[in-house]
Design a protein that fits this description.
The chain is of the alpha/beta class. It has helices at residues 15-23, 43-53, 74-95, 127-142, 162-172, 189-205, 226-236, 270-276, 283-291; strands at 6-10, 29-33, 57-60, 98-104, 146-151, 154-155, 175-179, 183-184, 187-188, 214-217, 224-225, 246-250. The chain has one domain: NAD(P)-binding Rossmann-like Domain (Rossmann fold, 3-Layer(aba) Sandwich). Helix content is 39%, strand content 17%.
Amino acid sequence: MILRPKILLIGHNGQVGWELHHCLAAVGEVVAVDIPDIDLTCGDSIRYWVNESRPDVIINAAAYTAVDKAEREPDRALAINGAAPGVLAEAAKRLSAWLVHYSTDYVYDGAKNAPYVETDPPAPLCVYGRSKLAGDQAVQAIGGRHLIFRLCWVYGLRGSNFLLTIQRLAREREVLRVVSDQVGCPTWCRLIAKSTVWALRQALAGPDPELFTGLYHLSASSHTSWHGFAEAIVKAMPAETRTCSRVESITTAEYPTPARRPAWSVLSCDKLERVFGLRLPGWKEMLDLALT
């Protein structure tokens, strides 16, 4: 067991990365880096930071997350989401370090209509989903000590995300129109970070890395639609701060986007609970926690 591991955190300015940066100080010595200091499209840049820091743990919280833009930039999305995790996995394996990597519910096609488990075959519908799946597969193929966490509908109180967008629009518009036929598990980035730290502590302390190495779903323990999520966000806003009085339900067909998204993104987190004793709250309870 390493008492004060050295941790290389990549993507500390992102939603999950920012929360991780605040949580990890209690775990070990943190070296935090983000774009433009690291170029995730360049293997040499990635290897430079790993070689300079010689970490015991690498956490890759960086990603190309512009889902619709990825349809126009498939090569860049694949380089950052698909190739870079493979470079990190190779470097981590060489150092016998742990690699923590984040994936997405968009690796699934949404046709199951029951919570997805880790062994369900992925079938992404868009470039973003395919690029993230390529990263998962690269890490798994290289092996070594790794934790891959598949996330769902991540939001936070900073940056750019659905929660902040709905709050802004609710201040500007009387009526919001939001898709109701896409269902998932809205998950607060702070609890993702805290869950990561919880799992990582156990992995670092455990006598056998094989007991923990693998792919896990990490999301809220209940689900809703984008419309349901938006209604809850607006309802939680003080009346005097919003203009919106109604959130209308629309279909995906009424709100076309360049990238196809799964209609059903619900993740089963039973494996996470079995291995780490960890289960996140339901999405509504989590939203209440985030907004208090």
